[in-house]
């Protein structure tokens, strides 16, 4: 019988998390903790039909991922070639079945790239993002979350904005979001049988963004290949037995020395939801987090 490896928390992980949280405020230079950032003059300013890799993680979020993948079927790009990379764990059966369903759908200018991981590696999002950054062949990489939807003209308007650019980090200036949806909301009740789904855009309202946070990090491919994603910080490359809060987003911006530049991208939508599938349901911690999200709303 194959031995199952378990990953125990390291005693110094909380200290490392605290250290990098303080360091990312600008206390120390980010260049101390990464490989050489390629100078702007050495980066390719690609034009024409560009290559983009979209990178998502999914753990028990199949209803949200269905909207994301469906949007790429409904609104395929004409001025981009897109590789859609999704990291997942085979134990998450709803996500596994959903990816099987989309594997059978051919979309012009879209290539599916499903990447299974042991869930302990999936639970540390920096691991998958670093793998994708180091291996990508794309001109640009969009690190996103599976509750983001690429609606009408999203990817083609992105292609227009990226022409000839050599910037390190970009992000959509505006997104459209739902209110905080309860787990029982009809929009989230479709994970049993995989199928194409679509949003009602009238349920979303616009909001402006001020930095390349979380699901809105569009990174130049030469930068991604050169430095990875928090590759030089062991904390963010260490597996975990539970889903880790994604503090590495802030650390990544510190490493590259910018909050990102805003660009005008149409049709970026996000489904906001109270219950986080990646946290164990009905635990005290899950209930506390849901209550906090309600208060934030």
Give me the number of helical elements: 9
Distance between the termini: 48 Å
Overall geometry comes to: globular
Q: What fraction, in percent, of the residue positions are helical?
A: 25-40%
Uncertain runs:
282-297
Name the quaternary structure: single chain
Which whole number gives the mean pLDDT?
90
Radius of gyration: 19 Å
Estimate what percentage of residues fall within beta strands: 15-25%
Structural class: alpha/beta
Please report the total strand number as a whole number: 11
Largest sheet: 7 strands, mixed
Could you give the order of the helices and strands?
HEHEHEHHEEHEEEEHHEEH
Strand order of the largest sheet: 3-2-1-4-9-6-10
3D architecture notes:
Helices cover 31% and strands 18% of the residues. Mean pLDDT is 90; it is low at 282-297. The strands form 2 sheets. A 7-stranded mixed β-sheet has the order 3-2-1-4-9-6-10, with helices on both faces. Strands 5-11-7-8 form a 4-stranded mixed β-sheet. The protein has 9 helices and 11 strands. The chain has 297 residues and is an alpha/beta fold. The protein has helices at residues 13-27, 62-74, 93-103, 119-122, 125-135, 154-162, 221-227, 248-256, 284-296; strands at 50-57, 80-88, 110-116, 140-143, 148-150, 169-172, 174-177, 205-208, 217-220, 261-263, 268-270. It is globular, with a radius of gyration of 19 Å. Helix 1 (13-27) crosses helix 8, helix 2 (62-74) runs parallel beside helix 3 (93-103) and helix 5 (125-135) crosses helix 7. Helix 3 links the parallel strand 2 and strand 3 (110-116). The longest helix is centred in the N-terminal third of the chain and has 15 residues, at 13-27.
């Amino acid at each position: 019988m194959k031995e199952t490896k378990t990953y125990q928390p390291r005693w110094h992980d909380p200290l490392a998390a605290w250290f990098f949280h303080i360091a990312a405020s600008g206390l120390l230079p980010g260049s101390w903790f990464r490989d050489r950032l390629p100078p702007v003059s050495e980066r390719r300013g690609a034009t024409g039909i560009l290559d983009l890799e979209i990178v998502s993680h999914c753990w028990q979020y199949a209803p949200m991922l269905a909207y994301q993948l469906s949007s790429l079927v409904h609104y395929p790009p004409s001025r981009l070639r897109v590789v859609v990379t999704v990291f997942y764990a085979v134990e998450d059966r709803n996500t596994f079945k959903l990816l099987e369903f989309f594997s059978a759908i051919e979309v012009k200018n879209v290539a599916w790239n499903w990447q299974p991981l042991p869930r302990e590696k999936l639970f540390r999002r920096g691991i998958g993002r670093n793998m994708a950054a180091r291996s990508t062949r794309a001109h640009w990489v969009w690190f996103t979350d599976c509750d983001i939807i690429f609606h009408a003209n999203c990817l083609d308007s992105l292609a227009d904005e990226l022409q000839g650019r050599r910037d390190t980090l970009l992000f959509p200036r505006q997104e459209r979001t739902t209110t905080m949806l309860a787990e029982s909301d009809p929009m989230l009740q479709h994970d049993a049988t995989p199928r194409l789904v679509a949003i009602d855009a009238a349920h979303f309202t616009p909001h402006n963004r001020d930095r390349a946070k979380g699901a809105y990090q569009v990174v130049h491919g030469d930068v991604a290949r050169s430095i990875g994603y928090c590759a030089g910080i062991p904390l963010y490359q260490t597996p975990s037995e539970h889903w880790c809060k994604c503090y590495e987003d802030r650390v990544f911006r510190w490493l590259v020395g910018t909050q990102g530049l805003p660009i005008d991208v149409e049709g970026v939508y996000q489904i906001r939801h109270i219950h986080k599938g990646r946290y164990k349901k009905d635990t005290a911690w899950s209930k506390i987090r849901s209550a906090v999200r309600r208060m934030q709303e």
